[in-house]
Amino acid sequence: MRVPDSQPFVPVILGGDIGTYSLAREFHEAYGAVSVAVPAGSNGVLEHSVAVDVRPAGSMEENDVVAHLQCLAAELGDRPLLLFGSLDLHVTLIAGHRDELEPAYTIPYPDLATIESAALKENFYALCAELGIPHPRTAMYRAGSGEIPADLPFPLIAKPSDSSGWVAAKFAGKQKVHTVNNAAELTDLLGRIDNSGYTGNIVLQELIEGGDSNMRLATFYVDRTGAARYAAYGEVVVEEHAPIVLGNSAAIVTGVPDAAAETFIEQGRALIQRLGWHGFAMFDAKLDPRDGVVKFFELNPRLGRNHYYLTAAAVTQGWDWANPARAYVREWLGARFEATSLPAGLSVSRSEVLYSVLPSALLRQHLVGEVGQRAAALLKARASVNPLAYRGERHPRRWFYVVAALANQFRKFRQYPPRR
């Protein structure tokens, strides 16, 4: 689908994953708008969609992407262009090249310094400590230094502080997150990282036990005055465990079921406002079974890959104004394009809906604990949504891809089963 010449503004989205498609779907649901997606190369997530014009960059090297975006801007003409990133590295690229891109694009992200104060994990944990917000015990290893901290709590989690820089790192056995059982395994892993090209910090963090259903999420929208305006809370039912997508949520239940969720939201709000943030941001956290406290893991300086749970919850609650597309247009393009206004204060979505990218038969095999019970009830009530299953789609090849993607989940979950 090509962007119509008559379309009054154009969303341009770096990336090619479910998060990219979800944002394009949200713009189409809200305005009938076609978004331009800019992946390295086209793929089934984006192809044959009524909501997406796929314009591959070929290379995701920074200078190549900037040049590609500048050419796209010239082609798309003299109308507002909103520029988004689907991954942390996209957001930092956009913010880092603001001077080159902003003449043509409206950029709905804070400055690079603010983004790095949140996205770099050593900065995030320091802020949590300053505000007294719970987080796992953490130490840092500077790649290439050879100075491994002493008295580490094995088993532990090792992960990059700079997820943008991690993308280019190359070494055998690389994962998004590594579980390390002892000092010998850690020495081996850090040696491989030292020779990978990654130059940032490695987070060495106590392992909080518990399965996927202990994971917690919260997405916030903050206006340009720095006031948090609405939030959606989610409890993960099950995650994906294939190495390339490890840690991505496959199913999420929304709502605010207890006091721990309320506290998590208030603590997230305190972090967001302390940062001087604006736009969207998402927190990852985990319920620690030892003390019943939700411990913060990280802040993503953007809408998350699975952010459509926020939109699904808002729609169920009757909050059409909470569609992220409307928030972006309202705040950055103005009343000429979006006349609705937000309620006063912070609105927290409390409606329950099941977000899932899995076939129901597969999901039912992985329902555990109280979160699983909530998911089972929503499955029975048919209160679920798959971001790829958009009724506005018409092309047969689009629906063939959606069915094939669902079927492929059986294979992935057999090969990489979830933790309990």
Automatic annotation (TrEMBL):
<dbReference type="GO" id="GO:0046872">
    <property type="term" value="F:metal ion binding"/>
</dbReference>
<keyword id="KW-0067">ATP-binding</keyword>
<keyword id="KW-0436">Ligase</keyword>
<dbReference type="InterPro" id="IPR011761">
    <property type="entry name" value="ATP-grasp"/>
</dbReference>
<dbReference type="GO" id="GO:0005524">
    <property type="term" value="F:ATP binding"/>
</dbReference>
<feature type="domain" description="ATP-grasp">
    <location>
        <begin position="125"/>
        <end position="330"/>
    </location>
</feature>
<dbReference type="GO" id="GO:0034025">
    <property type="term" value="F:D-aspartate ligase activity"/>
</dbReference>
<keyword id="KW-0547">Nucleotide-binding</keyword>
<protein>
    <submittedName>
        <fullName>D-aspartate ligase</fullName>
        <ecNumber>6.3.1.12</ecNumber>
    </submittedName>
</protein>
